[in-house]
From TrEMBL:
EC number: 1.10.3.2
Keyword set, alphabetical order: Apoplast, Copper, Lignin degradation, Metal-binding, Oxidoreductase, Repeat, Secreted
Full protein name: laccase
Chief location of this protein within or outside the cell: secreted
Catalytic activity line of the entry: 4 hydroquinone + O2 = 4 benzosemiquinone + 2 H2O
Cofactor(s) required for function per UniProt: Cu cation
Pfam family, one: Cu-oxidase_3
Signal peptide: none
PROSITE patterns: MULTICOPPER_OXIDASE1, MULTICOPPER_OXIDASE2
Family, as annotated: Belongs to the multicopper oxidase family.
Function description: Lignin degradation and detoxification of lignin-derived products.
Cellular location(s): Secreted, Extracellular space, Apoplast
GO BP, sorted A to Z: lignin catabolic process
Amino acid sequence: MITQRPILPNHNFTYRFNVSEQEGTLWWHAHVSCLRATLHGALIIRPRHGAASYPFPKPHKEIPIIIGDWWQNDLRRVAWNMAHDSFGDYPSASTINGKLGDLFNCSGTPEDGYELHVEPGKTYLLRVINAGLFFEFYLKIAGHKFKVVASDTNYVSPFTTDVIAIAPGETVDALVVADAPPGKYYMVAVPTQPPLPDPQVEAHATRAIVQYSNTHSPGSGAAAAGGDQSREEDDDDVPVAPQMPDEHDTLISFYFHGNLTSLPHRRPSPVPLRADERMLITLGLGSICRRGQSCTTGVHGKGMLVASMNNISFEPPTMRMTPLLEAEYYHTGDIDAMPEFPKWPPRVFNFTDRGLTPWGPKEMEVERVSKDTAVRRFRHGAVVEVVFQNTAILQSDSNPMHLHGHDMVVLAQGHGNYNATKDVASYNLVNPPWKNTVVVPNLGWVAVRFVANNPGVWFVHCHFEFHLTMGMATVFIVENGSTVETTLPPPPENFPTCAAEDNLVPDGFYIKTEKTEASYK
């Protein structure tokens, strides 16, 4: 309901879009409730002149590696529960390319895992996507290194690492050379979460196997491969396993993302050196009173737990409204009457005070937020600087923030509270990375800039599904420019339409037939 109504069962809609200034890996997914957990896929953009024009040696093969979830729950029920203050649903397992892997045992025997067959000495381009709902992952392959070459369809200055940190919504392109002694090696993805006192949840690692083709060398396992790997038992056929980082080690993600810098000669757009508008957006949890009820301050005062940006928890448009993009094009009152999203938080305090994480009188002073469909307008061509500031209110988690319709220049990141007086000096204005999803570190901040040059209505949200469903989102509206090319085109003829009572409504999912009506609530 930001850009369109959902595509109805047994209906179809064809998307048409231009590809410009992008090469590499993106992905597509559903944006209704939690359905993207299973409705997603890779979208690969190759150079116009073929693989020979990559800014790195042409790989032997290119392989998508999609990290995802496996759910035993109904995903509509999961979304409904989270929107109504119930957070007991978690994925039953993690997957790599749709395979559970042998860490998961469903029927008394280990499940099959994805197998990547490689030839000794060959180079492979792994296009890694985190399609999961809840977790950032650390990815390693025993006995091998990654050379990171791109992220979010933007080339980066290559750097070598033994671990990839990838949050939901992100993509990372990395070269892997099959240069280990012939054998089998585990590729392991471990979900991360913040340490105590944050709530600890059930999380599942998963693993695939890198198998050297047509070779077998007894005794050539862990000792020969070197590094941090280990065998699980004395069996030449058992893959070598990597030593994985601790799930609470958030610094690995901080330094991995801090290593990203761009290849300037491969990016047509210049780095915006000055900002026309500046915003500070705080990210955190809070509470509101349940609809139609009064409550005292605090989630223990019968309030409902929500997520917010600048103390506003996003209220999605209902199916009874016009989608915001259509409302913007036709200049209807729906969008003009919406409140303006603020440039700054309503109050300034020590946002990263760890004393705000546990429930109690201290966090209750700052946890109250409001619920609204707030939007912010930008003139076409404006350079907008946004500092995303994480808070410690009821949690200290990182937040992968995604902006639709634009790439952002990541100027700097840091821990603690953003301080413009000193932190502006750390801005990288020479070769900053371009990203569509930026990871705001635990108890820290990230500063970005984007050029508002794509007219339309654009969702801005955390890519952790629980935060998005809880309201950590807003809408940026980019106004038309002065030319036809910079003007929002009309909706296509086959744009989805439906009546509110027939489909998705705020409190449930309805399906009507001629003879029966079934509701899911």
